[in-house]
Write a structure and sequence with these properties.
Residues 135-350 form the ABC transmembrane type-1 domain. With 368 residues, the protein is an all-alpha fold. The chain folds into 2 domains: 33-114, no CATH class; 128-365, MetI-like fold. The chain has 16 helices and no strands. Helix 13 (292-300) runs antiparallel to helix 16. It starts with a helix and ends in an 11-residue tail after the last helix.
């Protein structure tokens, strides 16, 4: 097993390199960029935008005021007409685009290997600080949503499998189908209307992870305040997430219950509970665990993007989206790098959980 873990860790390196390389190449061909964004702001908003974007550098401001009097200057930038070529070159140097693409990629990989993500293009703060500030929100949403949805779906799926075809199975299937069909952000909007002062009750807060007086509260008060703020977004996420894992658990248990070894165990006089949790559970849960990494990553990032927007929760999903729209490439690549590492680590953890649940599985015997 130790050799298998080492192989998986070694494979993470080319995987990360491939992900970053493909993304880097796509970005090179994507229309627009940080330089074009600055030029568009200069053309549309004048000198005031320059001080916000470039930090008020006086030499760049002087270059911006100069004009070349023609459209022959740096024609590859739309909106560059009338700006001094020297100013545009300084912008390229500021964003690092004065170097060839391979050199920029190699430097980025070297820096990221040391977890040096540099500074945001358009925020006067380091990328690591931006991620650190928003990480608690994403961890809270992703971790709690995954744990709560699995805590609901696994017992519910087992119960549905045991009582397959009963009235309980039928009406819970209706609830599951509704949860699967309606997106989580629609649940979020409905919860806001009903319980967050939208049109009816105002029981829960509409924004933020904690209250303004959070630091002055007692330990119990902090826990209650945190749960109070997380109630609606977590409810919206769980209602839209537990359906798939519930049906997966039910079908997996049904498949195992009908196998010969279960009939043999019952013929030996074992109780139904002993058969279910002593024999069926270990085998049936393997396929459920296989879906854990995708569920966790989805909850950690993509699944919570709209929820973060609706409930004004400033997490990594919202940060990544706004950075992509705003062409803030250091933030885009840094979050991609971190999510890729987390995804690969969670997949390895999933394999280790396989062996913990069923010791008969031996990944070390595999060639890869």
């Amino acid at each position: 097993m130790f050799a298998y873990i080492l192989r998986r860790l070694a494979l993470m390196v080319p995987t990360i390199l491939g992900i970053m390389l493909i993304t880097f190449v796509i970005v090179q061909f994507a229309p627009g960029g940080p330089v074009e964004r600055v030029l568009a702001q200069l053309q549309g908003q004048g000198e005031g935008s320059l001080s916000r974007v470039t930090g008020g550098a006086g030499d760049l401001g002087g270059a911006a005021r100069a004009t070349s009097g023609g459209g022959e200057t740096n024609a590859r930038y739309r909106g560059a007409q009338g700006l001094d070529p020297a100013f545009i070159k300084k912008l390229e140097q500021q964003f690092g685009f004065d170097k060839p693409a391979p050199e920029r990629f190699l430097k980025m990989i070297w820096d990221y290997a040391r977890f040096d993500f540099g500074n945001s293009y358009f925020r006067d703060v380091s990328v690591l600080q931006l991620i650190r500030e928003r990480l608690p929100v994403s961890i809270s949403l992703g971790l709690w949503m995954t744990l709560i949805s699995y805590a609901i779906s696994i017992p519910l799926g087992i119960r549905k499998a045991v009582r397959d075809g009963s009235r309980f199975d039928l009406w819970t299937s209706g609830v599951v189908i509704v949860g699967y069909a309606i997106p989580s952000f629609l649940f979020g909007i409905a919860l806001i209307i009903l319980f967050a002062g939208g049109s009816f009750l105002q029981i829960f807060p509409l924004r933020g992870l904690t209250s303004e007086n959070f630091d002055t509260l007692s330990l119990w008060g902090k826990a209650v305040d945190y749960a109070w703020h997380m109630a609606l977004p977590l409810t919206a996420l769980v209602l839209g997430a537990f359906a798939t894992s519930t049906l997966l658990t039910k079908n997996s248990f049904l498949d195992e219950i009908r196998k010969q070894y279960v009939l043999t165990a019952r013929m030996k006089g074992l109780s139904e509970r002993r058969v279910l949790y002593g024999h069926v559970f270990r085998n049936a849960m393997l396929i459920v665990i296989a879906g854990f990494p995708a569920a966790f990553i989805s909850a950690f990032f993509t699944g919570s993007l709209l929820i973060e927007t609706i409930f004004s929760l400033d997490g990594l999903g919202l940060l990544s989206f706004t950075s992509i729209v705003g062409r803030d490439y250091p933030v885009v690549f840094a979050t991609l790098y971190i999510f890729s590492l987390v995804g690969l680590a969670v997949n390895l953890l999933s394999d280790l959980m396989y062996t913990w649940i069923d010791p008969r599985i031996d990944f070390s015997a595999r060639g890869t």
